[in-house]
Structure formats: structure tokens, C-alpha cells
Design a protein that fits this description.
Helix content: under 10%
Number of strands: 28
Shape: flat
């Protein structure tokens, strides 16, 4: 499926400022609790949970959270603003880092935290407020109960070219102890075209290691690369107990995790070196596909994407074999068009992959 399409037209890319962001954590967002011995894993009193927000202008890769444009950062537990003291501490140059020093999920199934960031836009002289949240959950896991827990140690959001890869990790817990011996892993991707059970159930495609898309598909850590996520993807990990002496021998344990692509959409503008009119059947021009992301031109060298040019005739019908026998498109960032290519009228469309 093409990432974007365009045709010869004039576009004004005067985009308004858009902010995007997320909250990073140093630990998993699920805390295991064993009522048999009243223990937590991880124990936030021993290894504190640290929440660090990031803020970006759409189409850029510079984290603004510590910049002079940030006027304030406020953390909330539900509707209550958090201040330093007790189980919490606030730190950082913008008082933007929240550290949780206690097992605040005690007796609760989960808890939501929200960060509110006030950003000053010098262009409009306006203050913009950006909010984003994060949810933590507690799993009661005692008395021999075994669970698979999937989490993202370095976040689950791609942002333009800022993130080279993400890790989806899945761990097997027995009570409050992680089991890493005599277990096997297999990762799957939610795919409606998977109409047969490939091991993860119907609707789940079994993953194989694929360069620049997925690696580690049979390990506890799946490495996901940006081309694997168009906008949103759900991955499933199936852990099988292979210990013949275990009470759960051959049993499968499953959890899922989502990965989001928050990259700005790419827009295409086509420029023409010779205008858009041929006179008396005579003319020549070179069309150039220019890519924009939030007003900034990208891939000026034409090496990052594959460009496919299609031709439609005066009746808007697609012209077959435009690129040769059996090929309906021509490739390249530019397309040379001569008078022989235009019969009364022709429209040239470009797609990128």
C-alpha cells in the first residue's frame, strides 16, 4: 500500500503548530503482587518508577521538554495535582520528572497519571496546553498463578525519524518471580487476512525475522522497526512452558501490546519545470515529486522512498503499460514528459512506498 499519493497541483503548506508527546518509563507498567508473601515485583520502594514526559512539534525530532518555551509542567493523580512528598518527588530543570517511591497500587487494580505541559509559541505569542496520560496496573499473582506480561521498556510510540526501533518485551511470571528457563517464545501480529490458526489464533499472523521490520520473533524481546507500523499495530506473544517437570508443562501463556506511529503524514507536491500547458502539440517538462512533512521538505535526494508515476488519459482512465510491457508506472523522483505523452490532456500521478 502506498504511503502517499500526489498529482501535479499547487499546494500551500502553511501548517499550524501541532504538538505531540508521550510519557516514558524506566519500568514495566504492570506491577505483580503476591498476596502469599505480600511482595511486589518490581518493588517501587526499592527501584523507583520514574516518569519522564517528552514534547515535540509535529514533524521535528527535538524534544522540547527542557526548552525555554516550556512554561510549566504539572502532574496529576486523577484530578489531584501531585507535589513532592510521601510517595512522590518532582525533579528536573522544568520540574517535569515524576518519581514514584512507593507501591501506590496497593489495594488498587490500577492508577492513571496525567501530565499537563504549557508551551509558549513565539510565533503567535500564545500559550498552548498539551496533556497526555499513562496507566499502571496491578496483577495479583500468588499461589502458583502464572501469567505472561507484555510491556515496552523504551516506549511504544514512533515519532518520525526520532526512534530507530522499539522493544516489545514479554515475561513469564510465577507468583512474583520471573521464569526464564525452559520456556519458548513466539510473536504474532494482528492481521485480519490470517484466516487460519498459525499458532496465535485466527487473525494473528506468525512473525518471522524480517530485515528492517521485526527481529527477535522467537525471544522475549521483539525488536520492531518503523516500516512495520503504518499507524497502529498489535503484537501478541505466546510463551510455552517447555519444562517437562513443570506443573504447567506445554501450557501457553499469552499477552498483547500495541505500538503506535505518531509520525506526521507525508504530503506530495508535484512541480513542473515547463509549466502545465503544451501549445500546438509541442512541449516538454520535468515533473518533480516534492515531499513535505508538517511544512518541511523531506527526501530531497529521492533515496528514502520509491516513487511510482502513473498516467491517466483525457478521460481520467489509467493508461496501462506506461512503464513498459506489463508495468503501469515509471519510477524515480522526477518524470520527463514530452509532447508524445500528452494527447489533449494527461494527468500524472505519483505514489511513494
Amino acid at each position: 500500500m502506498a504511503l502517499a499519493t500526489g498529482q501535479f497541483t499547487i499546494i500551500d503548506y502553511n501548517d499550524a503548530l501541532t504538538l505531540t508527546g508521550f510519557i516514558g518509563t524506566n519500568l514495566a507498567k504492570t506491577q505483580m503482587y503476591n498476596p502469599d508473601n505480600n511482595t511486589y515485583s518490581p518493588d517501587w520502594t526499592k527501584t523507583n518508577m520514574v516518569l519522564t514526559p517528552s514534547l515535540y512539534k509535529m514533524g521535528t525530532t527535538t524534544d522540547l521538554i527542557t526548552s525555554a518555551s516550556i512554561k510549566s509542567v504539572k502532574w496529576y493523580d486523577g484530578s489531584s495535582q501531585i507535589t513532592s512528598g510521601g510517595s512522590y518527588s518532582i525533579s528536573g530543570s522544568k520540574s517535569h520528572i515524576l518519581t514514584i517511591k512507593g507501591n501506590v497500587l496497593s489495594g488498587l487494580p490500577g492508577k492513571d497519571y496525567t501530565v499537563e505541559i504549557t508551551y509558549h509559541d513565539d510565533t503567535t505569542n500564545m500559550d498552548l496546553t498539551y496533556k497526555t496520560g499513562i496507566t499502571f496496573s496491578r496483577v495479583v499473582n500468588g499461589g502458583g498463578i502464572t501469567d505472561a506480561i507484555a510491556w515496552a521498556p523504551n516506549g511504544n510510540v514512533f515519532k518520525n525519524d526520532d526512534v530507530a526501533s522499539l522493544i516489545c518485551q514479554c515475561d513469564l511470571w510465577r507468583g512474583s518471580v520471573e521464569d526464564t528457563t525452559n520456556v519458548s517464545y513466539q510473536w504474532y501480529l494482528s492481521d485480519t487476512s490470517a484466516t487460519t490458526d498459525q499458532g496465535g489464533g485466527i487473525g494473528w499472523r506468525k512473525l518471522i525475522n524480517t530485515a528492517n521490520r521485526y527481529t527477535g520473533v522467537t525471544t522475549s524481546k521483539l525488536i520492531v522497526y518503523p516500516p512495520a507500523v503504518a499507524s497502529f499495530a498489535v503484537f501478541k506473544c505466546v510463551i510455552t512452558d517447555t519444562d517437562s517437570t513443570s506443573s504447567t508443562y506445554n501450557q501457553k501463556f499469552v499477552d498483547t501490546i500495541s505500538v503506535i506511529d505518531n509520525s506526521d503524514p507525508i504530503q506530495i507536491s508535484v512541480s513542473s519545470s515547463g509549466g502545465n500547458v503544451f501549445k500546438n502539440g509541442v512541449g516538454q517538462t520535468t515533473l518533480t515529486a516534492r515531499l513535505f512533512q508538517s511544512g518541511n521538505e523531506v527526501d530531497t535526494a529521492g533515496t528514502k522512498y520509491i516513487y511510482k508515476w502513473f498516467k491517466r488519459d483525457k478521460d481520467a482512465n489509467l493508461v496501462p503499460n506506461f512503464g513498459g510491457t506489463g508495468i503501469n508506472y515509471k519510477s524515480g523522483k522526477t518524470l520527463d514528459v514530452g509532447d508524445a505523452d500528452v494527447d489533449v490532456k494527461a494527468t500524472f500521478e505519483v505514489e511513494i512506498d
